[in-house]
Structures are given as C-alpha cells and as structure tokens.
Specification:
Elements (H helix, E strand, L loop, with lengths): L37 H13 L16 H11 L10 E11 L2 E10 L2 E11 L5 E8 L11
Antiparallel strand pairs: 1-2, 2-3, 3-4
C-alpha cells in the first residue's frame, strides 16, 4: 500500500492557502484538553475499593487522618459489591468551602440501584490532594469501632 499525499493546486499568480496559526494575534486560542479533576479521580478510586476491585491499602497514600480507617471499615462490609453489573460513577458534584478543600458527592450506579457517596479532599503542603473523610449512603463508622 502506498501512501498518497495530495496538494492543493494553485493557479499561477494566486496566493498560497491561508495558514491558520493560533499563536498569531487575532487567532483563536488553542484547545487545551482538560485533565480529570481530583474529585473525578478520587470518586473512581473509592468506588473501586468499595466494590472490591482494588485493595484498601492502595488508598493509603491518598488518604489523611481518619479517612483510611473509615474507608477500611466501609470496604470490609462490601457495600458496593454486586453480582453482574459493576458499579460506576454516574455523576459528581462538589462544593469548595475554602481554598485547598473540596467536599464532593457522587452518585454510584449499578444496574437499577443508585447509591450516594460523599467525600472530602484537602490539599496538603506538597500540593497533593488527599481524602480526609468518606461516607457511603449515610453509613458512618462508629466513634469506637468494634475490633
């Protein structure tokens, strides 16, 4: 198979085709692809842990404070483990109470079931986001967990 290159035919004395360069003044700004937000990444990771597709310890460096204990407590109960349809994040919303903190909610769907998940992210001194709280459908870890 030969690669064929085509060129625009010009008539003598005509101008070459116009170059559309976004770096020149008056050009449109280049479309920059926006990466996923921290809320999107954390929601996906949390669903994977709570559904059993990812081990809890994979979130160890992504959590701070009591959040890891809460996540381990929730994952132990397997609230999103389903047979057949895998749970997926259907919608994410968030609220920014202050700079460096985000409170997010996600709607988790698995077939006809719909669950709610809430989590809080805080940005550390190293500018990395860490989960500091997580709840699923109102289920909360008791203040003194049963061992």
């Amino acid at each position: 198979m030969n690669k064929v290159m085509t060129r625009t035919r010009r008539t003598p004395g005509s101008r070459p085709p116009v170059r559309h360069d976004s770096r020149r003044p008056g050009g449109s700004a280049p479309a920059t692809p926006r990466g996923p937000r921290p809320t999107d990444l954390f929601a996906e990771r949390l669903v994977e842990v709570l559904s059993g597709r990812r081990p809890v310890h994979s979130m160890l460096r992504h959590t701070a404070g009591r959040a890891y204990d809460e996540l381990a407590w929730l994952a132990e109960r397997g609230p999103l483990r389903t047979r057949g349809t895998r749970p997926v994040v259907r919608d994410i919303g968030y609220y920014i109470p202050r700079s460096g903190a985000v409170e997010a909610f996600a709607r988790i769907g698995a077939g006809d079931q719909l669950r709610a998940m809430a989590f809080r992210l805080e940005q550390g001194q190293d500018l990395r986001w860490r989960c500091t709280a997580v709840e699923l459908g109102g289920t909360r870890m008791p203040s003194t967990p049963d061992l």
